[in-house]
Fold this sequence. Notes:
The structure is a homodimer. By secondary structure, chain A is of the alpha/beta class. Helices cover 51% and strands 13% of the residues of chain A.
Amino acid sequence: MSKAKKQILTIVGLGVMGGSLGAALRKRSRMVRVIGLSRSRSKIALAKRRGYIHDGTTELKAAVSGADVIVICTPVDTIINLISKIDRIAKRGAVVTDVGSVKFKMVNWAAGHTFQNIHFIGSHPLTGSHLTGVGHSRHDLYEGATVFVTPHRRSNRDALRRVGRLWRSLKSRVIELDAYEHDRMVSFISHVPHAVAASLVNATPERSVKHASSGFRDTTRIAMGEQDIWLPIFLDNRANLLRGLRGFERSLHSLMTSLMRSDKKKLKRFLTNAAHLRRQID
Amino acid sequence: MSKAKKQILTIVGLGVMGGSLGAALRKRSRMVRVIGLSRSRSKIALAKRRGYIHDGTTELKAAVSGADVIVICTPVDTIINLISKIDRIAKRGAVVTDVGSVKFKMVNWAAGHTFQNIHFIGSHPLTGSHLTGVGHSRHDLYEGATVFVTPHRRSNRDALRRVGRLWRSLKSRVIELDAYEHDRMVSFISHVPHAVAASLVNATPERSVKHASSGFRDTTRIAMGEQDIWLPIFLDNRANLLRGLRGFERSLHSLMTSLMRSDKKKLKRFLTNAAHLRRQID
């Protein structure tokens, strides 16, 4: 706290997202002091030993009261409550952001809320790992990743700039997006695929699974994600997820109908379209 | 043909499977002369230049008449016809196998057929690449891969041993399996995932696809496969594929129902089950 100009950044929650954030910050800047908050003393100890954080605590007040920037890296169903609590004990003008995968609910809540001390700006780094826990942190997890930042009309412009700068300093690509639009888009590229992958695993007989090769492994990798993270995401983005899954079902049905009819022309078009679209991002 | 004891092995079809087979054989043994057959002179030239084959030809007769072992590496809808043709021109006692992903139809056909010269044993290496073409061949594509070998009661035992030995010499793990059982199992771990991945891509708005991160990329990677390969597989294994897709649909529906009801307990169980089962093969 002593050395002039050193920013204090607090990471709330030491999982793979929080740990990797600390690792990236420590690697890229000496001008920031990184504090980690976790309920688990062993996670704090591990994060300190690995050099992801300068210091850690299990007490919210101790963690955030001196912080200039606070990044909430906990499951989406805990974030609104944490923002409320942090607002009461944070420094005046502190900037709070998060890494949650669903944005509309919290951004909408924040827009209608009068904060005492903080400015909240929602973030969602489109990165992660099925290898969970602070022990799987990687200093390059955010490098090259897209980070959606979802301000609303009443968002503080300076806070928005600072959050954008934070992510860019980790070599992320920042895209500003309306929170509602964000939730719809992310349902397509993340939540629907997760639901589909989990459904696929659950539909596969266990004795077949053991023979699975790279195709099945790739297709179902995300299904290994922790339910503590994913259940709140599913519930929070339920309407978009259901809408996306119904669209997926229609797509699957058109394939099944063509198969039942052995309609080569339609099957060929279906497979060609998919290969073509997917190759655009290979 | 001159040097004593050198076996002649002919690869029919120079794609990534055929090219990789040549590369692996050339790497592992000096006691085999590898001949490549392709309709494309440029593929033959490339395979020769890269050292995947000793020699190549566009003529079936030239390719197979001197061969001790012939491995058909072409799409599944071409294999039965090729076996027939090869039988008429091959050496007496030549062993023919293949790398096709669907086995029952051809094995059943072979079981009811009287060959003049060859012994046919179906094989299916559970490996491959969405990067297609002989140019993407890898000498280690078969290393550590499962190869299903699907004999029937009337299969020649010596030919079966030789085919098993061939795959094992490339460090593949050989599993003998009834062809009908094979097609059912492979529909679960390969053909259903492919259909699901393609449906997922086709259900995703193009403007969202461009933001896709590793989760979406993994889940849909196999959808890049060539339709020349996959359309015949889908048609050949149509009944199993449809049955598997119906099972997948039931699994998806149970998830959607739990979502509509916000049934946390069921959703949690669904996600936990999937993660648990998938982690067994991580």
